[in-house]
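Posting this for the archive.
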Amino acid sequence: MVFYILIYPSEIIEATRSGILLWANVVLPSLLPFFIGAELLVGLGLVKFIGVLIEPIIRPIFHVPGEASFIFAMSITSGYPIGVKLTSNLRKSNVISQSEAQRIISFCSTSGPLFMIGAVANVTL
């Protein structure tokens, strides 16, 4: 790969520029509202509230705490970046164990329809 960078530097610079512009103009605007909204809901304590209500349902099925239901809902709607981010936040705050985090990641790493519409469909138009 370094060999091709040395041979075709102008193409590499243009491809890098194109990739950064794509990320800044398409991916970031489609994900930023979900990151902000999720952090607000976590900060307001809504995740804890939902976790208490949903725990009797989600614990026997997936063997994870009720807070995972919020992560699952956000992951289905917005996509895998937010599922991983929220799982990481819960793990860092010691709400979930490492094995629970691994289980949550296994079913919360999906490409959500809103991300697909916001990012992928926007690129093809």
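The CA atoms of residues 105 and 125 lie 31 Å apart. The first helix runs from residue 2 to 7.
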